[in-house]
Amino acid sequence: xAPGGCVGDSGAGSRARPAISTRDAPPAKASPTPAGKATxxxxxxxxxxxxxxxxxxxxxxxxxxxxxxxxxxxxLRSLRVVVPTEWEKQVxxxxxxxxxxxxxxxxxxxxxxxxxxxxxxxGAAAGRLGxxxxxxxxxxSPTCPDLRKGLDD
Length: 153
Known about the structure:
Distance between the termini: 70 Å
Radius of gyration: 23 Å
Number of helices: 4
Structural class: mainly alpha
Helix content: 55-70%
Largest sheet: none
Oligomer: single chain
Number of strands: 0
């Protein structure tokens, strides 16, 4: 072995790659502790309640729908900070669905696009939102029993 080289390193023009330290990787979020569980559940319930308010909106009332979307997005950001890794995918999917609904509503804003296609896009976005919300609720409900009721109760 060449001085400063690695096992199997002939030293002929090759360099040893530095070891990757686990200290460089961000820490993985573990399943919540009892105190952490209470925080996750409280924030997930806030998301669910704000989604309930959003789904009760008349989407043709653009400004009130946008306020409801902003509240859902705020609650999702709050949940994202504390949610364990195992549920990040569902939180991201729900966040994406909220953004799609927001864009569909924005297209209707001020009558810019009131074609049947724009309303169909709004309906499809609302459907994706419901599916994403239920996926997250089902994932979290064993840990957070208060979420078991769902949005339609």
